[in-house]
Design a protein that fits this description.
This protein has 306 residues and is of the alpha/beta class. The protein folds into two domains: 64 residues, no CATH class; 185 residues, Vaccinia Virus protein VP39 (Rossmann fold). The chain is 23% helix and 22% strand. Strands 2, 3, 6, 7, 8, 9, 10, 11, 12 and 13 form a ten-stranded mixed sheet that branches. A three-stranded antiparallel sheet has the order 1-5-4, with no helix packed on it. Strand 2 and strand 3 form a beta hairpin. Helix 2 crosses helix 6 and helix 5 runs parallel beside helix 6. The chain is globular, with a radius of gyration of 22 Å. The chain starts with 17 loop residues before the first strand and ends in a 27-residue tail after the last strand.
Length: 306
């Protein structure tokens, strides 16, 4: 027996869907609904890709949700398989270890300074990659920015959702892989990365940089924070200025000089570097070049009639 009303929706066409059954627990119809592995705290942001906005079907509110998503990309298929299994981060966030080692007790001052400087539009979209418990995402949402908190750990997103509700902020939490986020190109005015970049091996950083360049709209910024030195035991790999210039080359990006900061936590503090990278706006096309025909050829451009 299926519930009537808003819980029953029309499914996507059979040719563009792939059913993935994921038990996501109980969810009341009055409180909202899960969009696959995404946890909706606010209405779906327009920056999400269309396949992630396809209608969902619910067999019963106490039964697993069937997510129907267009999974054409191999990377998206791999991410959907790996996200269903608990990882080290799932166990750490479930046990509360994030409060001791990497969750900041307050909003980092470099983020407060960036928003106060006015470099980000008042209604600019913020994407927090590897949001964790959502300290920075909740702060940006409280400042009035449309915010998307993205992490691959479901327990981390549950902490972020609880923190957003306690603060009275409205944001969107989504479980996804950073290399296959369900986001449209040019959707972000600000991308936050605190502690994700230094966990990536150097061989995967070019793909990460390409993904960042795709998410940022012209004039958008990336606030990157990473460890100041290598730590093999913790798996932290720092980055030099030369490596950053290779990952975000000119003239497409402009990198500000790095600043020495401290990533604070309850148990210990980590010396780190903060780098602000801006994606340059597209160059304006020279006047007359677009509409001028080639020399010796007639002007065949279409003009309105009447």
């Amino acid at each position: 027996m299926e519930p009537a009303g808003p819980c029953r929706r029309k499914a996507a066409p059979r040719s563009c869907r792939r059913a993935v059954r994921e038990p996501l627990g109980r969810r009341s119809a009055r409180q909202g609904a899960y969009y696959g592995s995404a946890i909706i705290v606010a209405p779906v942001a327009p920056c999400l890709k269309a396949p992630w906005r396809v209608p969902w079907t619910r067999t019963w509110e106490d039964r697993p949700v069937t997510r129907r998503v267009d999974q054409d990309e191999p990377a998206a298929r791999r991410a959907s398989r790996t996200l269903r299994w608990p990882s080290f981060w799932d166990l750490a966030y479930a046990a509360g270890d994030h409060l001791l080692y990497w969750d900041p007790p307050a909003t980092p001052p470099e983020l407060v300074e960036l928003l106060d400087a006015g470099l980000i539009p008042r209604q600019g979209t913020v994407v927090d990659l590897g949001c964790g418990a959502g300290r920075e995402a909740v702060f940006c949402a409280g400042r009035g920015h449309p915010t998307l908190a993205l992490d691959r750990s479901l327990p981390a997103l549950l902490h972020a959702r609880r923190r957003a509700r306690d603060a009275g902020a409205s944001m969107l939490c989504c479980q996804a892989d950073v290399f296959a986020p369900p986001l449209a190109a040019g959707c972000a005015d600000l991308v936050l990365d605190r502690g994700l970049f230094h966990l990536l091996p150097r061989r995967r950083r070019p793909a990460y940089a390409r993904r960042i360049g795709r998410l940022l709209r012209p004039g958008g910024h990336l606030l990157l924070r990473f460890a100041a030195g290598d730590d093999p035991e913790a798996g932290l790999v720092t980055a030099s200025e030369a490596e950053l210039d290779r990952l975000f080359p000119q003239p497409g990006f402009h990198r500000h000089p790095p600043r020495s900061i401290t990533m604070t936590a309850q148990a210990e503090d980590l010396p780190a570097q903060a780098v602000l990278i801006r994606r340059r706006a597209r160059r304006a096309e020279p006047a007359g070049r677009r509409w001028s025909p080639a020399p010796g050829k007639p002007d065949r451009r279409r003009r309105p009639r009447g």
